[in-house]
Amino acid sequence: MRGRKSNAEQQAKLVVFFILIIGVLSVVDGLINWWIQLSVFVKGSLILSLSFVLYSTVTLINIRRQYRKQLEIEERKKRIIRAAEMKKIRQMRPREFEYFVADLFKALGFDAYVTKATGDGGKDIIVHKDEMTAIVECKRYKDKKISVNLIRQFHSVIIDQHSDKGYFVTTSTFTKEATRYAINKPIKLIDGEELVNYIQKIANQ
């Protein structure tokens, strides 16, 4: 009887052992499957993330290119408009140009009136704004640059007239010496390019 009982116990232990082995193998298999699925998910997420980053980068590059292209188009239009306006201004008669500049100052909020055609004493226009009085000299040149001598003479007129400021307006440009001379003096130099800028500013108001 004892022998039979011993055999039964051994068989029972073997059954329990096999059940445990099967359970452990099932758990291990589940872990392996879970790890495989996780790896696939992570790999898929990584690929998706890289694809999104690549797409975003390409999109931003295209947007930047389109923006730069649009800026180039707008800048080209501005250059064409400026050239057309400057060509028209340079075709004005000197007296006509003085009245044009006076109108420009009026549009900028100044009181302005044009002096007499001859013997103006180096001032073509007198302008007022608040308590400030300034004189304006106009030179409608095509290619000739404004020299430092003209700016010196204009500075003397500003002092003689007891003006607060002076504006020297030209359709041309100023020499480097003239530009340097005007530094730290009550003189505002307005060349052809800046003149067009004022015109466009007024037009956009």
Count structural domains.
Answer: 2
Helix content: 55-70%
CATH architecture of the largest domain: 3-Layer(aba) Sandwich
Could you say what the CATH topology of the largest domain is called? Answer: Trna Endonuclease, Chain: A, domain 1
**How much is the average pLDDT?**
81
Major β-sheet annotation: 5 strands, mixed
Q: Could you list the spans in which at least 5 consecutive residues all have pLDDT below 50?
A: none
- Which structural category do the helix and sheet elements fall into? alpha/beta
Which CATH class of the largest domain applies here?
Alpha Beta
Percentage beta strand: 5-15%
Q: Specify the number of helices.
A: 5
> What is the alpha-carbon Rg in Å?
43 Å
Overall outline: rod-shaped
Strand order of the largest sheet: 1-2-3-4-5
Topology at a glance:
Elements: H1 2-90, H2 94-107, E1 111-114, E2 125-129, E3 132-139, H3 148-160, E4 165-170, H4 176-182, E5 187-190, H5 192-203
Parallel strand pairs: 3-4, 4-5
Antiparallel strand pairs: 1-2, 2-3
Helix pairs in contact: 3-4
Task: Please give a structural write-up.
- There is one protein chain.
- The protein is α/β, with parallel strands linked by helices and 205 residues long.
- The protein has 2 domains: 1-91; 93-203, 3-Layer(aba) Sandwich (Trna Endonuclease, Chain: A, domain 1), CATH 3.40.1350.10.
- The protein has 5 helices and 5 strands; from the N terminus they run ααβββαβαβα.
- Strand 2 (125-129) and strand 3 (132-139) form a beta hairpin.
- Helix 3 (148-160) packs parallel to helix 4 (176-182).
- The relative contact order is 0.08.
- The model has no long low-confidence stretch (mean pLDDT 81).
- The chain crosses the membrane at residues 12-36, 42-63.
- This is Restriction endonuclease.
